[in-house]
Amino acid sequence: MSNRMKKNVYMTGYLPLFSIILFSCGFAIHLERLVIKKLKYFGVYQGMLELFESHVIHLSVGFCLFLLFFMVFAALKLLSDALTHLSMFFFSKDTEGILLQQGKSGGWFFFGGGMLAIVLNHSIFLMFIVFIAASLIYFFYFLLKIGSSLSTAGIIGMVFMHLFFWTGFGLLVVYTVLRLYNAFVASIT
How far apart are CA 46 and CA 52, in angstroms? Predict the structure, then answer.
């Protein structure tokens, strides 16, 4: 039975979901404390206590933040999978998905990173570093696992495709957030 479980490729199918849950919990716990502190600072929390009990407010804010981060991380996983499949289409000769299966075991890096994010929930910066590190380690592990089946040009193409996409995506998100922040500040003054 244990040999069968070790060889079954579906045993690690739950890792992406649990990884997303763990990272979402870590970020939500940190931001829930920050939101509650800001609500107290602005005097809104006291008014909320007249309607709800303290633990209900904490759970509601935490759950809403968890859902927000869950959607963000699920969307990032969807983008990552689509980009990986697209890069495999362009740069590998594998048409049956065998190379993708070889790299799936790298999901343990995200799972470990998610558990570390729960432990480090006191610092959003450390959790962000853990997420980036888990992503990079997974990507290089994936390249290492499939590298023998790709040409040198294929590996370089795959690396640059991911690098250009994620850099462009990150810059677009930062630009959009800054534009929204500037518009918000301009509307206040």
Answer: 10
84, 75, 96: which is closest to 143 by C-alpha?
84
Closest among 144, 187, 145, 140 to 163, alpha carbons compared:
140
pLDDT in tens, 132-178: 999 999 999 999 988 888 888 989 999 999 999 999 999 999 999 99
Q: Which residue in this structure is represented by tokens 């992406």?
A: 16
Distances (CA, A) of 98 to 5, 16, 103, 180: 19, 19, 9, 44
pTM for the model: 0.87
**Residue that the structure tokens 């089946």 belong to:** 149
Q: How far apart are CA 66 and CA 46, in angstroms?
A: 23
- At position 74, the amino acid (one-letter code) is A
CA distances from 188 to 38, 144, 175, 185 (A): 18, 51, 20, 5
39-52 pLDDT, tens digit per residue, is: 999 888 888 888 88
